Every structure is written in C-alpha cells, then in structure tokens.
Amino acid sequence: MSKKSEHYAVKVVYVLGLVLFGIFLISPFLIPIVFAATISLAMYPLQLMLENKGVKRKLAAGILTSTFAIVISIPFSFFLAKGTIAVTQQLEKFQTDARYRNQGVQSIIQMLKNQLIDGVHFYSESLGIDTYLTDARIDSYFIKVNTFFLNFFQDIAAGLPTVFLFFLVMVACTYSFLKNAAGVRKFFQSLLGLDESRMEHLIRIFITDSRQVYVTNIVTGGFQSLCVATGVGLLGLGDFFLVFFITLILSFIPVIGAAPVAFVFGIIAFFKGETTAAIIIVCVGMFTGVIDNILRPYLASMGESRIPPIAAFVCVVGGAIVFGFPGLFIGLLIGSFAYDTLPFFWDEVVANNTKNASPIIVDDEIDE
What is the DSSP letter of 361? Predict the structure, then answer.
C-alpha cells in the first residue's frame, strides 16, 4: 500500500471513529435532538420572515423558541403526563380489579363476546368447519391486548421524570439550530456536494415534510379528538379527558384514525339501551371521518410528502414499537423523509453516472 493510500485510510478511520463516538455520546438524547431538528426546519420560514423584517438572527431564534416552548411544549408535556397516568390507571383496573369484569363496559364486552362465539359456531357448523373459539380463548386474547397497551403506557409513565430533561435539551437544540441555520446548511451542502439549487430543493423537502407531519397531524387530530371527546362527555358515556387523549393518539396512526373511537362508544351505548346516544355518537364518528378526509388532505397540500398511507401506517406503528410514544412522530418523519429524499439522491446518482459515462462512438463512414 502506498503512503498516500495509508494516509487516506488513517483519515477515514479517524473520521469514522469520531462520528461513532459522537453518536454514542448523544444517543441518550437522540430523540429530543431529532425533534429539535425537525421543529427547527418547520419554523425556519418564520425565522427568515422575521430576519427580512429587520429582526436580528439571535433575537428571531429566541422569539420563535420561546413561543414554541411556552405555547406548545410545556402544555403538551403536562397533557402527555396526565393522559399517560390516566390511561395506565384505567388499564390496571381492567387487568386486576375483578369488579370490572361483571359490570359497566365489561358486561357489554361479555355480551359482545357471547354473540361473537355464537355467530362463529353457527357458521362453522353450517360450513362443517371446526372452531376453536371459546370464551376462555377470547379472554386470553383480551388479556394479551390489554397487557400490551398497559406495558406501552407504563413505559411512558416510567419515563416521565426524564421528559423535563428532554424538554430542556430540545429547547436548547431548537434555539441553536435556528441561530446557526446558515452554518448547518453550509456544512451539509459541503458534505453532500450539492450546488445551490439542489441544496435549496432538498431543504424545501425537509421543511415541508416537517411542517406537514406536525401541523397536519396535530391540527387534524386535535379537532377530531375534541369532537369525539365532547360528544362522549355530553352524552355521559365516558371521561372527556381520557377519551380526548386516546383519540388524539389514535388519530396519529394512518388508516385507523379517530373515528373508530366514536363507533366503539356507539356500540357500547347501543348495548346499554341508549339508542339515541348511540345514533348521535355514530354521527359524530362519521363527521370526524369526513373532516379527516377533507382537512387532512388540505393541510397535507402544504407539504411535498407523497408517502402512501400503508407505508405511513407501517412507519408510525414501527416507530411507536421502537421509540414508544415519540415514535408516533419520529416514524412518520423518517418515513416521509425517506420516501421524498431517496428519489432525489437517486436522480443525483443517475445524473452523475450519465455524465461520466464514456460516449459511444459510431462509425458512420461507408466503405466504397
């Protein structure tokens, strides 16, 4: 190996070592850093607008970061803490308290379960198919599902003491990213080797995808959750806050959405003999479904992400399994970025290969 190759290898090992060690050091705070980066991208157009009006860069970054922390981050942190504790307590009651097995919602579940078993047995006998669906088996399935969600929310509750620390890191990183936006852009432009127009296009993809994920999901999910929780609360079918919290979480999951929560309460009201309440809450669910199909596409038009719903669903569920509650956002962000930026870089690779390809020489001379 030549001296030049040896020096190049040493440089590569040195850079890789520093990068890996740096990632290892920041790994405990990787989630708040990712949130800070994407939130900064979403607010960057506002930063430019303030700077164009004569506001200094540091002051503009401070105004945006403070507004975000006071108006959104702090209330959302308390909302997440209260909602997680409430859901965990309710799931623990279903899991351990025997009194819930024979009254209220559990009696309705038992009624639905019996009807399901009778229906399956009826059609199985008609078709000559053996069925293994029994009351005990359904109970085991229900316990498994309840245990899964209980562990999910218990993990969130256990991590609540670290939310404050993550909040501080996220706010500090958001301010730093906004204040040093020009330097961050220059670094990645040099690292990726892109010209001004291509870098501008890439930044626009990241900005619009980040804004779409946060604005579209929060606005649409919040409005749907408010409609469902208000209907359930006014009809006396459940606790307003608990329903709002669960519906908001489900609204972030593509394909599922918020409407099924209203339909579940409609079924509960029907089997409790409250037909009028059942009809009203089902109408509320249909309304939230219509709103989802109108408001979400309208807000999504603000971005450039064209990720298919099934791909978004897989990314959101996978993100929730890997990262917990933050994965509802991180999974969709990563999926959107990947779906929109991979073709961008693929076009760059194809263009470079075409440019560097050797021309084909065709001999047009005619032998006489």
Answer: P
Is the pTM higher than 0.85? The answer reads: no
Domain membership of residue 68 (yes or no) is: no
Residues in the chain: 368
Range of the domain at 211: 197-344
Residue 25, token pair as written in the block:
């050091």
> Which amino acid belongs to residue 94?
F
Cα–Cα distance measured from residue 177 to residue 156, given in angstroms and rounded to the nearest whole number: 27
In a domain, 14, yes or no: no
Q: What are the CA-CA distances from residue 358 to residues 297, 352, 354, 364 (Å)?
A: 46, 12, 9, 18
Confidence at residue 1, expressed as pLDDT on a 0 to 100 scale: 56
DSSP assignment letter at 5: H
d(C-alpha 46, C-alpha 64), whole Å = 8
318: tokens are: 């996978």
| pLDDT given for residue 222 in this prediction | 82
The reply to whether 313 falls in a domain is yes
Q: Are 91 and 153 in contact (CB under 8 A)?
A: yes
**Assigned domain for 328 exists:** yes
Which residues are within 8 A (CB) of 269 and not within 5 positions of it... i.e. 6 or more apart? 235, 237, 275, 277, 278, 281
CB 330 within 8 A of CB 252: no
Residue by residue, DSSP assigns 113-164 as: HHHHHHHHHHHHHHHT------HHHHHHHHHHHHHHHHHHHHHHHHTHHHHH
Average pLDDT along the chain, 368 residues, taken 10 residues at a time? 70 82 82 86 86 89 88 76 76 60 50 57 57 61 71 69 79 90 83 81 83 75 85 85 83 72 82 82 84 61 63 79 76 83 77 61 46
CA–CA distance, 358 with 251 (Å, rounded to integer)? 53
Number of structural domains found in the chain: 1
What is the predicted pLDDT for the residue at 98? 46
